[in-house]
Amino acid sequence: MITTEVALGLIYSSITLLTPILLAGLAELLVERSGILNLSLEGTMLMGAFVAFMVAFYTGNLSYATLVASIAGAVLCLLFAFLTITLALDQMVTGLALNLLTIGITSYLYRASFGWYVSPIPPHIEMTLHPIDIPVLSQIPIVGKILFNHLPHTYAAFTLVLLSWWLLFRTKNGLKIRAIGEDPQTADYLGINVNLTRYVLLVLEGCVAGLAGSLLSIGYYNMFLDNMTQGRGYIAIALVILSRWNPLLLLGGTFLFSFVDAFQLRIQAFNVPFLSYQFALMLPYLFTIILLLVAGRKVKGPASLAKPFKKLR
Asked: What is the number of other CB atoms lying within 10 angstroms of the CB of residue 140?
């Protein structure tokens, strides 16, 4: 039975779960607006989760862990930028290859550090990130606990939604990013440095995606698990497409996905007899596929998306 308390808890969990996907999605949205399709987003998040856990485990400092995770993400995206922008390799193939490479590297280094058999209790850290109460606002009945009692990453994600929208649609730099994504040759002719802009956006994406990944290992859990991102990077990319490259619509789509994710966790907790937990686990991804089928058919992205740019002059 769904009570008021359960419903409010569902909304709170949805906001909590949307944070890493929203952060990664916002960064990917800006990158795709400039004409780059970065499928290595999944691997970048995974690397962030791994590096954050390792630094937190050996130093006990969560701030260092978060910072180094962002740097690791930036380095990985810088490698992607070099391969796809400087060497003009296929963006999709490169992205997928980096994802596979990241899965292998994190799994190998994890076992090289802790041994091949880490069960039944995997290595873990003693403390994780804690939610922050916003003074005064968190005391508002009902709404206060739902909206103003989250990790700093959540507040940052909501702030970045507004900043991204403002950057893209209200500033000259946003206009330049969109121009590069539509017609890089004309943008270059007008004096916009296409490659430098794309490099900057990709490094920024790496920082944010690494931060999002760190949230999984030192925010939600206190350990690292193989492939613990569980497709969140791919989901973020799908939601960027469904949002039609608009940060405000991305926020709505991410909340819907996270709401279904939180709902399936409730199904498992209540042990509904006619719904197996395997089916419940599938629900968020099934929801995304249905959304793509319904709303993704007539979506028109940036004209130069995933196309290599070669300077003519």
From this structure: 13
Helix, coil or strand: residue 113 = helix
Check if the beta carbon of residue 148 is closer than 8 Å to that of residue 15. no
User: Looking at residue 298, what is its pLDDT?
Assistant: 75
What sections of the chain are H helices per DSSP?
Answer: 4-33, 41-59, 62-81, 91-114, 143-147, 152-170, 172-182, 184-189, 194-215, 232-242, 247-270, 277-295
Q: Read off the pLDDT of residues 59-86 as tens digits, 9 standing for 90 and up.
A: 999 999 999 999 999 999 999 999 999 9
Task: Supply 69's token pair.
Answer: 């995770």
Among 293, 299, 283, 305, which Cα is nearest to 250's?
299
d(CA 35, CA 14) in angstroms, rounded, equals 31
Residues of the chain with pLDDT under 50: none
